[in-house]
C-alpha cells in the first residue's frame, strides 16, 4: 500500500517520497529512526518498550510505515489500532535534513492505511519538543484537540492509611454496579465537557469503555461508580501501567 507521492522541496529531480509498510529488516530500520532523536540515555529503554509492544500486540494491530526516497528509508511512523475503534500514532522519526513534507507524507500514509479498517478516530500525542510536527500533521488532515497536562504523585506522598482523608463520597467498584447505570454516568461526563468538546458524540460509549479496558492492565476492581447522598455523581476509572511503574 502506498500513500500519495510527495515531492521534496530540496533537491531538483530527487526521487519522490513513497510510503510503504515496513517488513523484515525494514522494521529494525524503522525502530532505529523512531528512537534516533531521543537522549542517548533513553534510547535503549525506549527501543526495548517498542519491541515488547510489537510482541504483545495481536497480529495486524500495529506496524511501521516507511518513507522511502528511491531505495533509501528516510522516515518512519508507528501506528497501533486499539479496541474501541481508535488508533494511535507516534511522532515520525526522520533522517537529519528531511523536510516537513516527508512527515506530511507519513501522516497521510497512516490515514490511508487505517481507512481500510474499522478505525473511527486516530490520535497523535506529541510532547513539547515534538511541537514542530503540528503543522505537518494538520496539513495531512488532523485537527488540534487540546494540550494535555499530566499530574503524578510520588510513592512517598501516598496516604499512609486508606481512611486518612474523610469524604462524603462513596466509591462502588464495578463488579457491584449495574453496567447500564455505569454507562449512563460515563455518557453524562461527556455532556458539555470542557476538556475535549470535539470528542462528544463521536464514538459509542461501548467503544469508549473498550478503549479504557485496553489501556494498561485492566482490573474491574479499579473502576468505581462515585456516589454522594445515594446519588451517582461520577465515575473513577484507574488502570495499572507496569511497563512504566505507574
What is this structure's SSE topology?
Blueprint: E1 17-21, H1 25-35, H2 40-56, E2 62-69, E3 72-82, E4 86-89, E5 93-94, H3 100-114, E6 121-124, H4 134-139, E7 169-173, H5 179-189, H6 205-214, E8 223-228, E9 231-237
Parallel strand pairs: 4-6
Antiparallel strand pairs: 1-2, 2-3, 3-4, 3-5, 7-8, 8-9
Summarize the structure.
This protein has about 250 residues and is an alpha+beta fold.
Describe the structure.
The chain is α+β, with helices and mostly antiparallel strands. The protein folds into 2 domains: 17-139, Aminopeptidase, CATH 3.40.630; 155-244, no CATH class. Helix content is 28%, strand content 21%. The protein is built from 6 helices and 9 strands, in the order βααββββαβαβααββ. It has helices spanning 25-35, 40-56, 100-114, 134-139, 179-189, 205-214; strands at residues 17-21, 62-69, 72-82, 86-89, 93-94, 121-124, 169-173, 223-228, 231-237. Strands 1, 2, 3, 4, 5 and 6 form a 6-stranded mixed sheet that branches. A hairpin with a 2-residue loop joins strand 2 and strand 3. The longest helix is centred in the N-terminal third of the chain and has 17 residues, at 40-56. The two termini are 37 Å apart.
Number of strands: 9
CATH 2nd-level architecture of the largest domain:
3-Layer(aba) Sandwich
Main sheet makeup: 6 strands, mixed
H/E topology pattern? EHHEEEEHEHEHHEE
Through-space gap between termini: 37 Å
CATH fold-type name of the largest domain? Aminopeptidase
Number of domains: 2
CATH class of the largest domain: Alpha Beta
Q: How many helical stretches?
A: 6
